[in-house]
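Hi there. Long-time user, first ticket. I'm pasting a complex I've been working with (about 1291 residues overall). I'd like to know whether the download I got is complete or cut off, because the file seemed smaller than I expected. Thanks.
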Amino acid sequence: MIFAYDLTWILLLPTLGGVLAMVAPVRLSRWLALAFSAATLALSLWIFLRIAVATGYHFGSVTDPKADPASIDVVQLPWIQFQLGSVTFRIDYYLGVDGLSLPLVILNALLTMLAVIGGWEKPRVKEYMALLLLLEAGVMGVFMALDLLLFFLFWEVELAPMFLLIGIWGSETLKHGMPGRIYSAWKFLLYTFFGSIFMLAGILLVYFQAGQNTASLPVLMQHLLPASTGVTVPLLGVTMGSQLLAFLLVFVAFAVKIPMFPLHTWLPDAHTDAPTEVSVILAGVLLKMGAYGLIRICLGLFPDGLQQFAPLLVVLAVINILYGAAICLVQKDMKRLVAYSSVSHMGVILLGVAAAAMAIHTSNPDVAHFGTAALMGATVQMISHGLITSLLFFCVGVIYDRAHTREIEIFGGVAKRMPLWATLFTFAGLASLGLPGLAGFVAEYMVFTSSYRIWPVPTAIAVFTMILTAAYLLWMLKRVLFGPFNLRWNWLPDASWREAIPLVTLAAFIVLVGVYPGFLLDVIVPALHHLLPVATTALGR
Amino acid sequence: MYGLYEYAWLILAAPLASFVVIVFGTRMADLWSRHHGQTAQDYAAYLREADPAFAAWEATRGAGGHAEQQHAAHAAGPAEGAAHLGHGGEAEHQEHHGDPYDDDPTVPYLTPWARLSGYVGIVLMLFACLYSWLLLFASLGLLPGTPRLPEGGITLFSYTWGSDVAFQPYTIAFHLDNLALAMTVVVTTVSLLVQFYSQGYMASSAGYARFFAYLSLFAFSMLTIVFAANFLVIFVGWELVGLSSYLLIGFWINKRAKPAEERPAPASAALQAFVMNRIGDVGFILGIMILFATTGTFDFATLAGNGPHGVAQAFAGNQALLTLAMILVFCGAIGKSAQVPLHTWLPSAMEGPTPVSALIHAATMVAAGVYMVARTFALFSAAGPQAFGVVAWIGGITAIFAATIGLTQTDFKRVLAFSTISQLGYMFVGLGVAGTEIGPGAGMFHLFTHAFFKALLFLGAGSVLHALHHAMHREVQDMRLMGGLARFMPITAATWLIAGLSISGFPFLSGFYSKETLISLAFEHGDYALWAITLVTAGLTAFYMFRAFFLAFGGKGGALGGIWGGPYRGEGTPHESPVTMTLPLVILAVFSIFAGYWVGFFQYLDPHAPLLDLGKLFSDGLTWLGVALSLLGIAWAYVLYCAVGWERVHKVVEANAVLRFFHRLLLHRYYVDTLYDWIVRYVVLGLCHVAAAFDRFVVDGIVNGVAGLVMELGSGLRRAETGKVQAYMTVFFGGIAVFAVVVFVLATLR
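Hi, the file is complete. Here it is re-exported in full:
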């Protein structure tokens, strides 16, 4: 029975909560939303604890057929199956969480709950809460789906609530002759659709080429496409390895989502026009869908294709890192600055993956270690960027709700009137610039130090982002919070208790990951070992 | 067996504990016990009551001050465009709103919670300090029943980031050896004295609790560097001291720049300090990356060892790469220790409260670069001679460069800042010329003595500024407004004199031993150019220190020929500072005299190093040449500022074109700040503007262009929307047919 699986409830709880929030009276609906988002979080934590206790903190990998069933949580039920001539179509209801996806599931649940708290006083609050919860359900599906076609389904499901959230509650500032919310919502939607088309083509290619009559990720990982025998692409006439072709098709969707230069321009617009909580979810989890897909699907299904592409990927990663940071330095809008800083920080993930890709077939155990550490750094960066950027967006939201502007130059010395908020905003800025003891440092230090072994020159160039990141964040903080006090803001009250809850919660997690990353690394690492198979054997495991 | 030592992690934990207690406990209570309104209206009402400046401001512009009015106010507001990174922004001094809010908010009295914050910090630091002294005595073999530390030191505690074998290098590990212990004693002692002193200095600041929290955070971060067992931990500490420095420089968050005195706003100074340090840190981490990629470890002991992961084996046949790595690592020290060309942040850092300047920007944090080189001394030794060459020459150039600037500065604290930069240069010379047989002792010895007398100089300066603030009711740092202060504040003057003599290398004071040893080492090891530079710098040091002393405390017409007292050029009547401030001065004065008598220092750090040979030091003619130059510097300062008087000196300089040129050049610090400002504003920000424009008009432009094209096409295709169901169905099934063909093609491809 489908309802007997807790993963089903991870999807159902937010969906139900969304529907209930919509139909219930306004008084109740926000409490319902809070209750259901909290229940989702509790359930995801329960799964985490159950596995941790049952296995003694040994998390498995869902794509590893030899994994201890207690170390993962999987549900596989047949869903759609039909025959069309010689072609069999089959989509399974196939969900699973392991060390790689469970932290992201928890992150999604946590951020949605905090977003519900943050959006407590929104206009049209019922619809707002409902859409936030539906969005959560869609994203959960992406992180849990193990059937590629189901993955694609959830990938598209997430779009609708996001489109509406930006389009309805977004900002009215005119952009290209229409309200910014309309422009940005469409831009977001079309960009993602653009990527999705390629992903669907890629998935179909894998489905038919592998000939397994299933889109199940673990099965396909056992039957990788040939890397060397070429396929001639129709229309283009280019011959390339079918793995590379499939990789490129699928990767376009992830590259848009991450976002990777030059497919990133939807992000600053979406962020500046989205309401605070939507920005939080967008930066905190939606971008991670791309990075997760890159690691889970591209690295798992197309290791050779990824390796062939890695030299280009590393160049794009460096561009992402430095170009994004450079643009930040001249931004006038706080939120736009944070958005571009996401471009820069997500580049670190690309760098780590590019380094790991080169370690796939190595027989040198040293290189394997460096590859594992780089990939781990990239994975931790997903979590830490999710926490830190969400905190930054929440902080910007606090001042925007009061001042109705985010323009950096208008403020000045605001820390005088808002000490609590200023402390947390400074904390967020410091976390984002990679201060040791906080989450961002763990990820970036691991990626940079270990990628250097594999890509010395690109990594050496990318490290200069340390200067730019410090400069743009602290310069922004200086202009907003410190310096001569602008009496215009004398009436500003400090962050309220309700506003402080998300800020403090996120800050606590950032410190936890930064000081003792072991609890996170040990969860993730088995899944990564399964993705870097040769590395594992080289270690004699 | 090493029980006593194994609890040394308590020294590290103590300041962290006080930070946590203050931030989450007493400071919260302190804020809570003062009123905080919940809504804007409440708050405005409260402000009207509590803050006359606010009431006055409100009266001038009508009640409220809400969103609708803001845009209008903004239009008339500051010139936004001129804002730029770094120091002395015009944007700051063109803004004239909020004059009454310039300075740090003061409170008439401290709440009990604020006081308690101070006590928490002091008591825990006192514990750390006593414990570190106890360990120092034990490690010297003076404590019966406790053995000395083993040569390699002991590990205090460690944990890895992850249990997987690939993460083994990523270990947080703390380690105690004699080098660490010597530094710990310096850090805890100066921290304790500075915290004690701050009770008086910060007595009326609204941010009293916050100040002690930051000081504790700093002590913790600094001790992290000191106890670091590998490059990961030292980098963590490295960035954390950068954070505490950032927070403390910018402690007075709302204070504005003073362009007339070329003083940046504290917020700008803090930003500049952090970013400039980060420039050095990029070099640092690049060096770490090269070492890590080649050896696979961050651990100091493993790197220095002979195993397969040691640099000796891993870099065999590739010493040039190791040399490069060590020079890059040294870049971190250049940033942190404010060496040329990354020195400009330290004078700006003087915008922080003076106790901070004493602790962080003179005695301890800026010396972290020296400590780091000492810690990785074996790696530098394994590298080519160019590595130590770079260390020594950067140090030498910085020493004389900063000393010449110090000659002309009129800001009391800024003279001391350049003196710090110059003395740090000395330490690097000491490390660079020493060679393996002496080890890091020479440079560290100067660090050790310098910490005490430089802290004393700064705290003494703080005492003066505190007194003048009370006398003149404004902030005065210009020495031209001082003079004759020895009459008013004899304890401050006397202790300052001792420190001044000590830094000038006056015989038998601590600075004499450490500095003359250093200078003679340069000579013995054949670095004659560096020897000459350090010798000349010694003379310059004596001159500018006593120029400062005579300008502040003495003057023409004072007692003892103008040395003690003289005409006071300011307003009001200064008074000697309270005992909370003078007591640390006296204690530091004792250290400034006697710290140099630890003759076994070299051996303490490195058992194979020789004892400090006092007999040789005293009998060497070169030692006395150095002393003579220093005395000459003091005498010349006396002639100019006691016998002649600074007004006449100034007139002579202004009248002579050559002198005037050099005076301007030095006064403006060789225009390095101006150059950096220009680079940041036009080159860096220019490039960033280009990138932003490229993003907007090219990358996004293409996207919008394509979208526009599709819209055009769409409006053409609109005619297809006939409203006929048949037409729609045709297209629908046509689409499915196309899709089926695609699937078929793909399926047959396999």
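A couple of notes from our side: Chain B has 34 helices and two strands. Confidence is low (pLDDT under 50) at residues 63-101 of chain B.
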